[in-house]
Each structure stands twice: as structure tokens, then as C-alpha cells.
Write a structure and sequence with these properties.
about 130 residues; alpha+beta; 3 helices; 6 strands; globular
């Protein structure tokens, strides 16, 4: 376990109010994020109800966010409009941000989702 990760107890406390399905998706996404960016710093934003991942504690250095919902989990990308998305996973109407909505834990294994994460990391590393 890297020092950048929150403790399992902190993550479980954050996810406690969600269904087992949503918790499973969020936990699987978390592992995907760390497999793509092992040195990412993890933050819990309770007011915004999200887990944030980046190389610094600023929005401009954010790779992605995991946003649990009632029956799904959004994986948000702050610069999503700049990402190539040939699989059409990204949705949203913001000026820059986009998200992929996951409703099943199996969705996390999609190669296109990993490619989006890798592209988001590459965006930051180019700066």
C-alpha cells in the first residue's frame, strides 16, 4: 500500500451510505486508478461526495474523480473534452469536464475506460 492512499477504514466510511453494488464499482475503479497511476494522491471530498486522484492537491493536477451515486458510479475527468473517446464512454455538458457512468462492476474492466485514464495521466505529465 502506498502512502498516497487513504486507509481502507476511511474509504469504507466514505462509501458506507451506498448500496453494495455502488461500493463494489467504486472500489474496483479505485484499484483501476492506482494500477494506471500508482503514485496518485487520493483525497476524500465529503461535501462533494467524491474521491479525487491526482499528482497534487489541486484541481489542475487532478487525473480523475470517483463519484458514487444512488445506483451507479461516475468516473469524472476534469479535462474530458480533450480526451479521445472512440468508444463513446464520456458524457456531460460542461465546458471541460466529462464523465463515464458505470452501472456494473464488469464495466470497470473495459479497455476503453483504462485508455481514458491513461490519457488523463498523459495530459498531466505533458504539462
Amino acid at each position: 500500500m502506498t502512502q498516497n492512499r487513504k486507509t481502507e477504514a476511511e474509504i469504507q466510511a466514505f462509501l458506507a451510505g451506498y448500496t453494495p453494488q455502488v461500493q463494489a464499482i467504486a472500489l474496483e475503479l479505485r484499484e483501476l486508478v492506482f494500477s494506471v497511476a500508482p503514485n496518485a494522491a487520493e483525497q476524500i471530498d465529503m461535501p462533494a461526495r467524491l474521491l479525487g486522484y491526482g499528482f497534487a492537491a489541486t484541481y489542475k493536477d487532478t487525473i480523475c474523480v470517483i463519484m458514487p451515486l444512488k445506483s451507479a458510479v461516475n468516473l469524472g475527468f476534469p479535462r474530458g473534452t480533450e480526451l479521445l473517446d472512440p468508444a463513446g464512454l464520456l458524457a456531460g455538458t460542461g465546458k471541460r469536464a466529462r464523465h463515464a457512468k458505470l452501472t456494473d462492476v464488469k464495466d470497470v474492466a473495459a479497455p476503453a475506460l483504462r485508455a481514458l485514464l491513461e490519457a488523463s495521466v498523459a495530459q498531466l505529465l505533458k504539462k
